[in-house]
Design a protein that fits this description.
- The complex is a heterotetramer, with 2 copies of chain A and 2 copies of chain B.
- The longest helix of chain A has 12 residues, at 103-114.
- Chain A has 7 helices and 10 strands.
- Chain A is α/β, with parallel strands linked by helices.
- Classes of the chains: A alpha/beta, B alpha/beta.
- Chains in contact: A-B, A-C, A-D, B-C, C-D.
Chain lengths: 236, 226, 236, 226
């Protein structure tokens, strides 16, 4: 019997090796798999390349992972926020690398990686510093930049419902990078709010088919980053 | 202090109200962070507009009442929103397919600088300790159907934001079609900036002195109506 | 008020001009917008380029459109079937052009067109006759072929539920090319089984957001190609 | 007619049953049209396998009883199927993302010819009036994790289908790892075809005479067990 359910976030992330490339879902706090990230902090894997839209807030979740010194490089579209001090300080100190990628290019690169497309062309960044050094090509008189697909060793994603096959739904705008990150990772690890039996998700409404998912762990009352930050919580 | 009195011009809300008048009925609209966000509150009666946000919602509505915020129902500015009947959620690749694929009709953004050829700089200063952060701005300016800017006419330090050539790193080349400032409505044409409307109490010569590039004046120059 | 509903298939297709490029949904008969196709036959636009996975069966639907001489060129992955005589006869007689595209490349090209991606690389067809004359590029030691995004003037698609904004759901495997074809057409025309009020589709379960759709027409009891063929029906 | 008696070998069902033994528990599997479709009926007890079909279903089940067919619930062979709890529907681009992206573990296809280097030809003959039709075959062979072929050992005319070099247009280069025929189970190795299992009643010399390329014999040659 196929059963992708694991018992705890700790078990779910236990094999993430030093030096891994890890996609981490979320746009700001929406969809941020905070319990999986905390498990990764406990686990201690270091020298990670993390691909995530932001760099976290306060000293919990993604910001805490970065503060713990486990991240060598961030691939990211928006690494600052009103409540984000960890990444800026390390970056200014030259202690963390940054690959800045426009948000839509980041999404498309991840989708391409999951879809077996090694590279594609986009108009985004043409004529800007972010296009420097990249291959350009003209189609129908318009210039485009070539961007590469992104594949990763792991993805950490937050979803809403999950079944033993790994089929998933999401909650509202927490969907964001989840589906494409699951597809681009060798091992997609997903925390769900609720576990359901097969058939508990309408096959018409499955957002991520289980084929893209390796492990599902139930986290019924996931923390919200903003709440933890407001409470002054730091992790660990 | 007559100069600073003269250059107050429109309030943020008035700028948003004026920009809103340009949005056609039925448009799919993406609003940037800051003053552009205010535009949604001023759509003229009788028009129905559908808002898109990069993080994966089409058809969202105004912020919820205090206490009813949902941390997983936010816009691209990471502020709480609501949804209206007929809305849809989708993932980031689909969301930017809407943008890059030309499906967004109208996009209103803030600006640090706009050049007379429509070049836009709105993501990074030249400050040596600036943390580069681009978000979806470059995707929006290259993909959306019509890019307009809402911005103060000059910086807090009084420097022009409408310039001959951007000195900050560019967001996109030749993308801006119209600029709504606290002082004027200015079109970006092949011949450069053209003043279409001027704020009440502002005179053309003052405006020219606050603009960092040649400013042609439309034959039918109007006063901004807000 | 936004209202994309139109009253009849005839009204929905009335502005399709001669020489248009038209995406037509369906995989075999599943998802084939047969009433919209018949309306296009009545309308009479000719010299069309049609992009569709197959070429139809019997003398109804897509096969009938081809038989009517309205199609100059088919872009297609599988232009024959056990019950398909119209296309093979015209093709052998040199009266219709064929651009043969592998099914996955066809889908990705349509998706790319809708997503503003002018070209991408795929391993599919490398080393085969279908890659001849195409640009190749090596990534990480593996060879890929460059394929172009497809955009079209119109799409004719069959969906299940639709609202006045154009939000859509589909029925089972009839989903196939519908969502991507809607995105790649300047004007996407959709026949739905049932019209619902806004909110009648759960925003989590919308498959095609209305932004990709221009016109929706209700066709409550759509015909099935196989049934018509079995009854010996021909159109017109 | 001793020769034709000798080369009957396995039935279509027996070929499918033997191929099914190779599918690991938990695999995501795509089955081609024809004999490969039969494989689903012979998965060994205790294994759970999830079937993918190019036209957008994961987790479909066997055909429905007569009269319960749904023309919009079909597989890539356009035959009616059913769905099982835990299935999912998706569009064609997502379906081929699963294929091209390497998410399908196991793919079983038919063949016109397989070359000793693993080249596969299964979409077009050289007949001058053939209508070219490729479907998803080229995507599957370039994307799926493991490509195996189930086919009669020779054509209806008695010509070898396992050959030194394909004469028909290729579907993919060097993609086939194993071939299940009515006479044998043959691996495609860097050194060419290697006979692993032979059908009951078939002798190696006869098999070699029906194979269009050199056929090495495994040290531990077995009889096909079905």
């Amino acid at each position: 019997m196929i059963d992708k359910q694991v018992r705890s976030p700790a078990e779910a992330v236990a094999d993430i090796a030093d030096g891994s490339t890890v996609l981490i879902g979320g746009f700001g706090e929406a969809g941020s798999p905070i319990e999986l990230i905390h498990a990764l902090i406990d686990h201690g894997a270091k020298d990670l390349t993390v691909i995530s839209n932001n760099t976290g807030n306060g000293r919990v979740g993604l910001a805490a992972l970065i503060a713990a010194g486990q991240v060598r490089k961030m691939v990211c579209s928006y690494p600052r926020s009103s409540n984000s001090k960890v990444f800026p300080e390390l970056y200014r100190a030259g202690k963390i690398e940054l690959e800045l990628v426009p948000q839509g290019t980041l999404a498309e690169r991840i989708r391409a990686g999951g879809a077996g497309v090694p590279a594609f062309y986009t108009p985004t960044t043409v004529g800007t510093v972010l296009a420097e050094g990249k291959e350009h090509k003209v189609f129908e008189g318009r210039e485009y930049v070539m961007e590469r697909g992104i594949k990763a060793d792991y993805a950490l994603v937050k979803a809403e419902l999950g079944d033993r096959f790994g089929n998933l739904t999401y909650n509202k705008a927490a969907r964001n990078f989840g589906p494409i990150m699951c597809s681009a990772a060798r091992v997609a690890i997903v925390q769900v709010t609720r576990f359901v039996e097969p058939g508990g998700i309408d096959p018409e409404a499955v957002v991520t088919p289980g084929i893209f998912v390796s492990r599902v762990v139930e986290v019924p009352n996931a923390a919200h980053e903003s709440v933890l930050v407001a409470q002054g919580v730091t992790y660990p | 202090m007559t100069v600073s009195t003269a250059i107050v011009g429109l309030s943020r809300e008035q700028m948003a109200r004026r920009a809103a008048q340009d949005i056609p009925d039925g448009a799919y609209v993406n609003l940037g962070i800051g003053i552009p966000e205010l535009v949604a509150g001023f759509i003229p009666a009788g028009r129905e507009v559908i808002y898109h946000t990069e993080n994966g919602i089409l058809g969202f509505g105004p912020p919820p009442p205090p206490g009813e915020e949902d941390p997983e129902l936010i816009n691209a500015g990471k502020k709480p929103v609501t949804i209206k009947p007929g809305s849809a959620f989708f993932h980031h690749a689909d969301s930017f397919a809407m943008i890059r694929g030309g499906h967004i009709d109208f996009c209103i953004l803030g600006a640090m600088q706009v050049a007379q050829n429509g070049d836009l700089a709105n993501w990074l200063t030249n400050a040596p300790d600036a943390i580069p952060a681009v978000g979806g701005a470059m995707d929006l300016v290259m993909g959306a159907g019509n890019i307009v800017v809402v911005t103060e006419h000059v910086t807090r330090e009084g420097a022009p934001k409408l310039v001959e050539k951007c000195t900050y790193p560019l967001t996109g080349l030749g993308v801006v079609t119209r600029i709504f400032t606290n002082l004027a409505v200015i079109d970006v044409t092949k011949a450069g900036f053209v003043l279409r409307e001027i704020a009440p109490g502002v005179d053309v010569e003052t405006l020219k002195s606050l603009t960092g590039a040649p400013l042609a004046v439309a034959d039918d120059l109007k006063t901004v109506s807000v």
